[in-house]
Amino acid sequence: MNGNFLIPANSKKSLKILGIFYPFDLILFASGVGVSIILMMVLQVSDFKIAILSILPGCVCGLLVFPVPNYHNVLTAIKEMWTFISQRQRFVWKGWCVLDEIKKLEKQK
């Protein structure tokens, strides 16, 4: 291979459980399901609204750890959106004509 090394695109999958979940994801999901089970045992689940309320923590945690394309999961996508909205962004131009822009700026001085 002439000293060239090919790194597989899915090399980070070996760090995940079942190739999808990090340990934090499973802990989050298990805690949500655990809270749902406790709520179902504590509350009288005879009413439909109370049943939905008791199942809600498990469903919310399940949606947060659901895999999403281009991100790890929904929780990561929400974190990235919050970072993008809340922090000041600085974009540095490094396009194919960046040298032309630098020359224009030098001529203006």
How would you characterize the overall build of this protein?
By secondary structure, the chain is mostly helical. The chain has 4 helices and no strands. α1 packs antiparallel against α2. The mean pLDDT is 81.
Number of helices: 4
Please provide the count of β strands. Answer: 0
- Distance between the amino and carboxyl termini: 50 Å
What is Rg?
24 Å
Q: Name the helicity range.
A: 55-70%
- The backbone outline, from C-alpha atoms, is elongated
What is the string of helix and strand elements?
HHHH
Beta-strand proportion: under 5%
Which runs of at least 5 residues are low in confidence (pLDDT < 50)? none
Structural class: mainly alpha
Largest sheet: none
The averaged pLDDT comes out at 81
Please outline the helices and strands.
Blueprint: H1 23-42, H2 48-64, H3 74-86, H4 98-108
Helix pairs in contact: 1-2
Briefly characterize the structure.
The chain is mainly alpha-helical and 109 residues long. It is built from four helices and no strands. It has helices spanning 23-42, 48-64, 74-86, 98-108.
Key features of this structure:
109 residues, mainly alpha, 4 helices
